[in-house]
Design goal:
Elements (H helix, E strand, L loop, with lengths): L5 E5 L6 H12 L2 E4 H15 L6 H9 L3 E3 L5 E3 L2 E2 L7 H10 L3 H12 L7 E5 L2 H5 L5 E6 L2 H14 L6 H17 L12 E4 L5 H16 L2
Parallel strand pairs: 1-6, 1-7, 2-6, 7-8
Antiparallel strand pairs: 3-4, 4-5
Helix pairs in contact: 1-9, 2-4, 3-5, 7-8
The structure holds cytidine-5'-monophosphate.
Length: 222
Amino acid sequence: MTHVPVIAIDGPAASGKGTIAAAAAAALGFHYLDSGSLYRLVAFKALQGGVPFDDAGRLAPLAAALDVRFLAGGRLLLDGEDATSAIREEAVSAGASQVAVHASVRAALIERQRALRRLPGLVADGRDMGTVVFPDADLKVFLTATAEERASRRHKQLITKGISVTLDSLLRDIRERDERDASRQAAPLRPAGDAVLLDTTHLSIDEAVGRVLAMYRTRKNK
Ligand code: C5P
């Protein structure tokens, strides 16, 4: 079978994974998977349907039946309607990390993620890309940055969108989310044994993307 290369980029909330992974995918001409969007979509559907975030029995079928289409430019359609910004709301962010603790929800999403591994290659970002979904990835990067730096980046992002939130509340949300993602039993957030750690606290986006591409090229040429 033809080998389809995968670059797995994992890390905590607001570590820049999405931006870095999408830019690396564009530079290589690879497909891009934002796996967090799937957990966000499950949380969004749960909110719409009044399904509690702890009701795994109802959440798993909802995850399995997601009608989602990923469009070019990072937009996505849920049940045929644009849900790109709706799933970025803070309530959905918090909900996503709660629905993601359930092993049955994770299992319902795994094949959908693997199906996106297509030529010429895939860059996938999330929490368990390197540990669970693509354990044979060609390159695994685990991004880190201090919680303060991540909260401040998110704060700037939201301000430019005209959304007003305090830095303190963002820092609290990020710490809560980190704690929940790292302490859950099913696919907890942790670097794969063979992942390269990349601390982005003092790196620009371009520098971080450059590092990922350089690592990938070095491996490919070995
Ligand atoms: O990456 P993003 O912040 O969009 O992810 C939202 C939530 O989805 C995370 O806090 C995490 O709980 C969950 N998630 C996950 N596994 C992934 C991607 C996201 O558990 N691969």
